[in-house]
């Protein structure tokens, strides 16, 4: 399992990521593009909170495709950024991006299964954990491990969500209204069994690991992209993975409607719609080791 996918991407199937899945890397990268304002706001907040730290070594815990890794390297000039993930293909993707952007000397990748334990690391100043905690078998143990490698005064930021973003209008003009409600209900039922940590209350868990919680912020995501190519591609990839993951839990009429949305052509295809509305919330909990 790849431990941090910076969006809902990995929630659309069985909760596992596969190294031979290029669609997943694209979807994760698109999250950083389509939701650039969220990423900028969250990481600018983190940078301001860290203004008095040495900021020499940062950790992206469960780096996925490296949206956070690259953003950290760009915002913290001179710092080394360590990207930890279980998926070697994702780490190769990060290395390629870092090389293209001239960041390779400051970006290091570490292959590790966080459920088996945090890899041996030098002390870090800042840890960014985006959409990774809910994947772990024992996130509380991982938080204690992060505390142990964090320098006094260092920061931990945990970004999470309670429910995937929504994209569709209630009435699509085809099928029964409320399609997305039913799709997400099926997905949330699957999550209750497979990923029970989704929606967990993270501030007390960070405190239990030894951190002092500084702030817990909710970032509202609200975007009406019209026919923005990246946003439409993001939605198509998301719903394509969702269809694969919950096909057995959705009735045939809803699957047929979903297929019309995913079609390359036709009046109702997502690629031709201008009524997408990406909305939802992500939370970021910021804590410090005193």
Shape: globular
What is the string of helix and strand elements? HHEHEHEEHEHHEHHE
Number of strands: 7
Strand content: 15-25%
How do the strands line up in the largest sheet? 3-2-1-4-5-7-6
Task: Give the helix level as a range of percent.
Answer: 25-40%
Task: Please tally the helical runs, counting DSSP H or I stretches of 4 or more residues.
Answer: 9
Distance, first to last CA: 32 Å
The whole-number mean of residue pLDDT values reads 93
| Rg | 19 Å
Q: Please state the structural category.
A: alpha/beta
How would a textbook summarize the main sheet? Answer: 7 strands, mixed
Which regions have little confidence, pLDDT < 50, spanning 5+ residues?
1-7, 12-19
Summarize the structure.
By secondary structure, this protein is of the alpha/beta class.
Keywords:
single chain; 290 residues; alpha/beta; seven-stranded mixed sheet; 39% helix; 20% strand; globular; disordered N terminus
Outline the structure in words.
This protein is α/β, with parallel strands linked by helices and about 290 residues long. About 40% of the residues lie in helices and about 20% in strands. It has nine helices and seven strands. It has helices spanning about 20-35, 35-50, 65-75, 90-100, 140-150, 180-195, 200-210, 230-245, 250-260; strands at about 55-60, 80-85, 105-110, 125-130, 150-160, 210-225, 280-290. A seven-stranded mixed beta sheet has the order 3-2-1-4-5-7-6. Helix 4 (about 90-100) links the parallel strand 2 and strand 3 (about 105-110). Helix 1 (about 20-35) packs across helix 8. The longest helix is centred in the last third of the chain and has 18 residues, at about 230-245. It is globular, with a radius of gyration of 19 Å. It starts with about 20 loop residues before the first helix and ends with a strand.
